[in-house]
């Protein structure tokens, strides 16, 4: 008997009965498809060698993905069976299950890339932030969706035929027993693991959608941040840097670069007890909310040069990967020199063990370094562009506050001398001048806080090429990570996106944005803005700090997802 005749020859009760029977078989076939999609979560989450973890994931996949499909049937398809029209019920069932499997595919793709499931907060990130350059695009749906539709229609036909086959009931019963046993066993394993603090399993409980609520702690566990005797910067084995090959705009003029980096100076040193560096500030843009992500000079030097967190430093230096800024300078045949104090604070030794991207010139003190820099400017080949860097470390050896101010004044006068030299050789206008801190003044170190705001708020002064020499200020959140893209875009003509080679942004276009945040990796993960900082410790705890102290709060998972996406962008 053809389906089109059902309404004519069957009563309402019989139509409902047939719809419910069809729904049960249709549910069984869709459970199989859900389990297949669920394997994406299984193999994405499996990051340890524990056999019992693998068994737990397999059982959870079978039990939980089937349970999700059963819930859709129970809440949506079962009530619809009472419409009393078998043909319409099958059509509606196919449409609903196609939508359900499509959402599963989108959620699985999202979990593969950012280890998070669909929610309003995550959906906001997908719509606003995650573009087609992050790998998180959904072009695969053009292929997957027709396959899903074809399979679900095929399942509907199989379920209809199953109404007439009595043998299928035996297999349906066995499948139901298998699914139920898997569901119960997986939860029993989790109960044991939770009671026994077996982290290899408890860390996996948010792997599947709507299994356990995803929290900040479980999200960090899924990224491998929370683990015994493990810190965030132990994770990266392979790095893809830059994400896309370097591209230069050949139609614009490149500019010289002069970058002077100061140790042991914080933003507060410009204000107390009397204003400092006032003569230099009068001709430059002052970034008042500039923060160094780390307390170590070498860490901040890496962040400035590469625009990357120290998470990647070990692998990058081992593989001798050139910073994109230096790669651009090499293509443009820049003369590159670094001036620093010989054997002071271990800089020369540590830099000599790093890839040699610039010619290193050493001196006995900062004044001598700046004199050498000035002399090299005077004798430099005017047909080439130059990129001169200086690391000034004399402020580390001050005896008292007066000595500190005197040395800072002397350094300022020497820097002004160099600026005059730039004007003398007609290079002032076409030079990007940056003066920045690479370590803060230890007198502002607050040992009570994880994020030492007053210590790490540093000095950043920039004179843009061909800009009017008028003092200005910018209160946008800035960091050492921003210096690499700033030099790349404003001096070298790089046309790649900043996301190709940095976690920072171009400071020429820096504006206040409430979503801006500073992401600091290391022993703890710190997400800071101008008002407060959220600290996620590698033992799973988290606190919020401001200048008054710390307090407990519920962290925003959306913010954490943004942060981990940026941190993990360059992992292969």
Keywords:
572 residues; alpha/beta; Alkaline Phosphatase, subunit A; 2 domains; 19 helices; 15 strands; 12% strand; elongated
Brief overview:
By secondary structure, the chain is of the alpha/beta class. It has helices at residues 6-9, 12-45, 51-80, 86-114, 120-128, 141-162, 167-195, 199-202, 216-222, 278-281, 297-306, 313-318, 324-331, 347-352, 366-379, 401-424, 453-456, 483-490, 557-567, and strands spanning 256-262, 285-287, 290-291, 335-341, 359-363, 386-392, 431-437, 460-463, 472-474, 478-479, 518-520, 524-528, 533-537, 542-546, 549-551.
Could you outline the blueprint of secondary structure elements for this entry?
Elements: H1 6-9, H2 12-45, H3 51-80, H4 86-114, H5 120-128, H6 141-162, H7 167-195, H8 199-202, H9 216-222, E1 256-262, H10 278-281, E2 285-287, E3 290-291, H11 297-306, H12 313-318, H13 324-331, E4 335-341, H14 347-352, E5 359-363, H15 366-379, E6 386-392, H16 401-424, E7 431-437, H17 453-456, E8 460-463, E9 472-474, E10 478-479, H18 483-490, E11 518-520, E12 524-528, E13 533-537, E14 542-546, E15 549-551, H19 557-567
Parallel strand pairs: 1-6, 1-7, 2-9, 3-10, 4-5, 4-6
Antiparallel strand pairs: 2-8, 7-8, 11-12, 12-13, 13-14, 14-15
């Amino acid at each position: 008997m053809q389906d089109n005749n059902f309404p004519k020859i069957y009563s309402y009760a019989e139509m409902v009965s047939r719809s419910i029977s069809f729904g049960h078989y249709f549910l069984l076939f869709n459970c199989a498809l859900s389990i297949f999609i669920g394997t994406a979560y299984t193999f994405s989450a499996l990051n340890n060698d524990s056999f019992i973890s693998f068994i737990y994931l397999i059982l959870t996949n079978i039990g939980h993905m089937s349970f999700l499909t059963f819930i859709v049937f129970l809440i949506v398809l079962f009530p619809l069976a009472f419409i009393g029209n078998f043909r319409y019920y099958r059509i509606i069932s196919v449409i609903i299950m196609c939508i359900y499997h499509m959402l599963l595919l989108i959620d699985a793709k999202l979990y593969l890339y950012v280890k998070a499931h669909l929610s309003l907060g995550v959906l906001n990130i997908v719509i606003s932030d995650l573009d087609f350059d992050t790998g998180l695009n959904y072009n695969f749906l053009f292929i997957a969706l027709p396959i899903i539709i074809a399979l679900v229609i095929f399942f509907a036909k199989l379920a209809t035929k199953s109404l007439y086959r009595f043998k299928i009931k035996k297999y349906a019963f066995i499948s139901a027993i298998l699914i139920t046993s898997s569901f119960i066993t997986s939860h029993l394993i989790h109960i044991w693991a939770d009671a026994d603090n077996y982290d290899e399993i408890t860390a996996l409980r948010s792997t599947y959608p709507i299994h356990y609520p995803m929290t900040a702690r479980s999200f960090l566990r899924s990224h491998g941040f929370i683990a015994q005797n493990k810190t965030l910067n132990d994770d990266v084995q392979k790095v893809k840097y830059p994400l896309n090959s370097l591209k230069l705009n050949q139609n614009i003029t490149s500019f010289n670069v002069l970058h002077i980096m100061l140790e042991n100076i914080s933003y507060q040193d410009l204000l107390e007890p009397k204003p400092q560096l006032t003569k230099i500030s009068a001709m430059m843009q002052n970034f008042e909310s500039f923060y160094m992500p780390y307390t170590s000079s070498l860490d901040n030097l890496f962040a400035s040069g590469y625009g990357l967190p120290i998470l990647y430093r070990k692998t990058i230096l081992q593989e001798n990967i050139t910073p994109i800024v230096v790669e651009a300078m090499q293509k443009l045949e820049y003369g590159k020199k670094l001036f620093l104090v010989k054997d002071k604070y271990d800089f020369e030794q540590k830099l000599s063990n790093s890839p040699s991207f610039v010619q290193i010139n050493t001196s006995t003190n900062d004044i001598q370094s700046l004199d050498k820099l000035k002399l090299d400017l005077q004798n430099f080949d005017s047909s080439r562009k130059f990129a001169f860097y200086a690391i000034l470390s004399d402020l580390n050896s001050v005896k008292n506050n007066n000595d500190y101010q005197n040395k800072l004044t002397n350094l300022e006068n020497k820097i002004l001398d160099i600026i005059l030299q730039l004007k003398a050789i007609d290079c002032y206008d076409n030079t990007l001048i940056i003066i920045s801190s690479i370590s803060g003044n230890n007198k502002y170190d607050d040992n009570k806080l994880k994020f030492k705001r007053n210590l790490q708020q540093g000095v950043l002064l920039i004179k843009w090429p061909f800009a009017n020499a008028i003092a200005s200020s910018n209160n946008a959140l800035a960091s050492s990570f921003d210096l690499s893209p700033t030099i790349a875009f404003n001096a070298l003509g790089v046309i790649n996106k900043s996301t190709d080679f940095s976690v920072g942004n171009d400071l020429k276009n820096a504006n206040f944005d409430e979503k801006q945040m500073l992401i600091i990796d290391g022993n703890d993960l710190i997400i800071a803005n101008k008002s407060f900082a959220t600290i996620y410790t590698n033992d799973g705890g988290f606190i919020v700090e401001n200048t008054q102290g710390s307090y407990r709060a519920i962290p925003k998972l959306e913010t954490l997802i943004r942060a981990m996406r940026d941190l993990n962008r360059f992992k292969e």
